[in-house]
Description:
Elements: H1 2-39, H2 44-49, H3 61-69, H4 72-103, H5 109-119, H6 128-137, H7 145-167, H8 172-180, H9 185-196, H10 198-213, H11 216-222, H12 234-241, H13 246-277
Helix pairs in contact: 1-13, 3-13, 4-7, 4-10, 7-10, 10-13, 12-13
Amino acid sequence: MNVHSSYGKSAKPGTFVMYLVLSVWALTTIYPMFWIINNSFKVSRDVMNNSFSLALDPVMINYETAFERMNVGKSYLNSLIMSGGTVILVLFLGGLAAYVLSRFAFRGRRLLFSILYASLLIPAFATVVPVYELLIQWSLVNTYWGLILPQTAGNLTFAILVLAGYMSTIPKELEEAAFMDGCNRWQMFVKVFLPMTRPAFASASIFVFLWSYNDLFSALIFVNKDTVRPIVSLLNEISSQYGTDFGLMATAVSLTVVPVLIVYLFISKYIEKGLTEGAIKG
């Protein structure tokens, strides 16, 4: 009893400090989001004069302007199509590549892993010119594929490494048992590896979707036409068309970020599970 009580007393200060640090960090993250949402219910003049006051008399003019003039619904649909298409392609191609890299021993395998890790260090803006030239030649600029294909290429490496690391932890005995039951390689991938790597696929899909959804840099370059503009470019569109309407800009940020936060609250457990159950191995 004395040992347990002394352990509890010694653990209390450390626990208090941990919660204190986490609380401070949470405030630095949550308060700016609250400030943005609060100011989205004010007119631009009130945002300039009293940006830190509560919107006790909220106005909806900013949201009405965003939906009526900026066609927010179409932008949401564009984001869903392009980000969803990117996720599907990344998971399909990345899953197959990860299966080969994790379960087959062949010459050059380590070199491929080294190239994949090295490619993570290449910044996206360094590839803009050649990618844009290719899209022009293929007539894909200002189309859905004009954003899906570059984002697929940009996120594929991450997905391959995460999925390959998870698949490498699957016991060889399961693979041998599936072969004895008459499974070929494709059936092995679909019936054995896909069900067992669902957490990793879920984590990869969530990260890829969020990165694709928030990719303003690529959206402004490859799909700057109104008919295919994603929601993330709404802020830039509003700032360029309506000058310094800070209430409308706060509304644009809220419309862009809040849906992602809501989705994340429901799927965060899958992210944690996928990242903790499988380790990245080379």
